[in-house]
């Protein structure tokens, strides 16, 4: 649907041996988000989800030294169990988020396709500028989102 | 649906003697947008509309001295003929728009309620900060959106 732009999009695509329904649950139930969403040693310590277009996606992450990072995003598309779109550029009720001193706004497009009992998991982070995508890449998008996905798989394989 | 915040929202509410379906047409057909959207002496000289969530809402405005202002927004909710939501914070495909040097991002929520052959027309501009709302107000939100609505009414009363 969106025109893909390799210079402004970061993509993580991987097959995971977790059924689509469990991937969906991991992404949409706050008590599950707390257990996988943030690569260790950081933790997600709070999560609020209002699962509808315009609804809130809030997370509070805490680092090993007690530093905190809050994110208040907004869901845009909710099509259980295969497509979830949210953005950091808007908050609850589609209200624009205040501009940060570093522009790291992105929209996350998550597509979960069933395949042989598992899921082809595609996560795209879509930025407004090449600079924002580059900054996000240098902050460790691939390792970070990949490590979080490893945690999702470990969690949902136990469940 | 959205929690209204009088410090960050600007609101224009007015009864207009134009049926809801014609108000909807005026807002969603590019050839009509060109005729009313921008208060004179400015004109809207181009408009592209892809009327679905994630779709493009593009306008190019031109001033009397030839100066131009382009806006590339994104539709969020499309419920003909009574509710239209779009934002300037995102572009087509939900891609965040690059941050401007002045933060004027807003989400426009338009509600059209039928009443006695006309329409209760409510337009809300929702900002991320009080500063953005104040800047937008000082730039002439009330007069500008009101004058544009006058032009919509004049146009659609002829149609």
Q: Label the CATH architecture of chain A.
A: 2-Layer Sandwich
How far apart, in Å, are the first and last alpha carbons of chain A?
33 Å
So what's the overall shape of chain A?
A: globular
Secondary structure: helix percent of chain A: 25-40%
Mean pLDDT of chain A comes to 94
Q: Unreliable segments of chain A (pLDDT under 50, ≥5 consecutive)? A: none
**The number of domains of chain A:** 1
**What is the gyration radius of chain A calculated from CA atoms?**
15 Å
CATH uppermost class of chain A: Alpha Beta
Instruction: Determine the most extensive contact between two protein chains.
Output: A-B, 33 and 33 residues
What's the story with the biggest beta sheet of chain A?
A: 7 strands, antiparallel
Structural features, described:
- Chain A has 159 residues and is of the alpha+beta class.
- Chain A has one domain: START domain (Alpha-D-Glucose-1,6-Bisphosphate, Chain A, domain 4, 2-Layer Sandwich).
- Chain A is built from four helices and seven strands; from the N terminus they run βααββββββαα.
- Chain A has helices spanning 20-28, 30-36, 130-138, 141-158, and strands spanning 9-16, 43-49, 56-62, 68-79, 83-87, 106-115, 118-127.
- A seven-stranded antiparallel beta sheet of chain A has the order 1-7-6-5-4-3-2.
- In chain A, a hairpin with a 2-residue loop joins strand 6 and strand 7 (118-127).
- Chain A binds chain B through residues 1-3, 5, 8, 53-54, 76-77, 85, 87-99, 103, 105-107, 109, 126-129, 132, and chain B through 1-3, 5, 8, 53-54, 76-77, 85, 87-99, 103, 105-107, 109, 126-129, 132.
